[in-house]
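Retro notes
What went well: the complex prediction finally ran end to end.
Inputs used:
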Amino acid sequence: MTEGKGWNPYLAGALSGLVSIASVWAAGKYLGASTTFVRTAGMLEQLAGAERVARMEYFLREVPGFDWQWLLMAGIFAGAFVAAYTAGEFRWRTVPEMWRQRFGPSGWRRGVAAFCGGVVAMFGARLADG
Amino acid sequence: MTELIYGFVTGILFGFCLQKGRVLRYDKQLGALRLADFTIVKFMLSHVVVAMVGVYLLYDLGLVKLAVKPTVLGGVVIGGLIFGFGWGLAGYCPGTAVAAVGEGRLDAVWAVLGMLVGAGLYAEAYPVLKVTVLTWGDFGRITLPQALGVNHWPVIGAVVVLTLLFFRQLERFEAARPALTLHKHTDAE
């Protein structure tokens, strides 16, 4: 199966920039992602114990719950799905090609690396406030 | 409620661009970190330049407010180093991980789960970090034009010109080098 080349990256980037401008203009909102992970982690922790979450300083700052950015993330998921599906590019895949050629076809090995990388990346992203 | 709908619609449009630009893919992200595939560099800088000009234009017209984050060197430098290490392992940043799941990439599901754990760990560590790392080199909410003591348009103009010159050099470099051999393209990708 061959996949299309997609859009010129300059064009796709510039169009996404226009989306950014429209968002700031229409909703007064600047695009972001990582705060949503904090709010979602807080909501999941509330399932285990709401009192503890209510006492935690960071969750007082970034209150667990659904907000504009949470819906932005849901939309990003949906938009990527629509773009992939309508182009016939949606397919469940466990291991990216570059990874497979270096580390083999094990989905578990790739999953562990992705999970650990995700933990570290998010900790750093929050520390840098971005 | 209206605000949530704005968020969802904005997300759909942005996610569509991420997929069409191919930037949500592990191979593109690692390609960027290995300085071998500049798709993401082109996408990001194009976004920044367009959004910068547009937002400042609206700002001058009094239609929007800027949202400047505080510059805390301790947090940005140490956080950036930690983030880079994790990004190289995961192969996705937070936004693209969510988008990659939308394309059917199951490894991105693992990355998203890890990111949720990382966010929870950060919340645990925050009381300590707040009085240490996050107090180092705190410059407050500054912008480049403010720091230089000039109007924002000369800075914007310089960034636009430098970015366009960089793009030109990048295209020349890509045209001159032999075909990309980082990995062989097979039917899997």
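What we learned: Helices of chain A lie at 9-27, 34-48, 50-55, 57-61, 68-86, 97-103, 107-127.
What to try next: split runs per interface for comparison.
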